[in-house]
Amino acid sequence: MNFKFTEENLNRIQKEINKYPVKKPAVMAALYVGQEQNGYISDEVIKEVAGLLEMTLEEVLGVVTFYTMYHQKQMGKYHIQVCTNVSCMLRGGYEIWDQVKNKLGINNLEVSEDHNFSLEEVECMGSCGTAPMIAVNEDYYENLNKEKVEEILESLSKTN
To answer: What's the CATH number of domain 7-66, 2.40.50.140, 3.40.605.10, 1.10.10.1590, 3.30.70.1450?
Structure first.
């Protein structure tokens, strides 16, 4: 499969490139646009970004594999990330992880059969003072307990 950015997305990336004296710092934005257009970061997206920003494939792949916001396979309509790092763990992060896992019937980096949900255990989402927390796509939910998590999951199930 051959990936090419749409003209609109090339313009978005060019605006990011224009913010810097060199192209390389626009890599995160370009990857995000690529993931948005393609659904995930494929090898073709990596090649396109590398060519566009005059980077090596390895440099782009290093960014993709470092950050949890980039996915190298198709995720569900609702991608749920559960933090289990120290602060979240001490305040019930693993209990929430188990709750979500059991409710959805999927494990880490799996996608539900209906493609509505995917699940990921993450190390830190920068919300230690409001732990435990989860993210659903780009929305953060903090100061959670099992009841609040159940409400979130039920509301997502109703929107399908």
So the answer is: 1.10.10.1590
Superfamily of domain 78-158: Glutaredoxin (3.40.30.10)
Q: Where in the chain is the domain with CATH 1.10.10.1590?
A: 7-66
Share of the chain above pLDDT 90, in %: 88
Q: Reply yes or no on whether the pLDDT at 132 is more than 80.
A: yes
The dihedrals phi and psi of 48, each to the nearest 5 degrees, come to -65, -45
* pLDDT tens per residue across span 50-61: 999 999 999 999
Threshold 0.85, pTM exceeds: no
Mean pLDDT of the chain: 94
Q: Among the residues of 18-145, which ranges form H helices?
A: 27-38, 43-53, 57-66, 86-90, 93-104
Q: What is the C-alpha separation between 36 and 32, in angstroms, rounded?
A: 6
Task: Answer for the pair 79, 120: CB distance below 8 angstroms, yes or no.
Answer: yes
**Which region holds residue 7: left if phi is over 0, alpha if psi is between -120 and 50, else beta?**
alpha
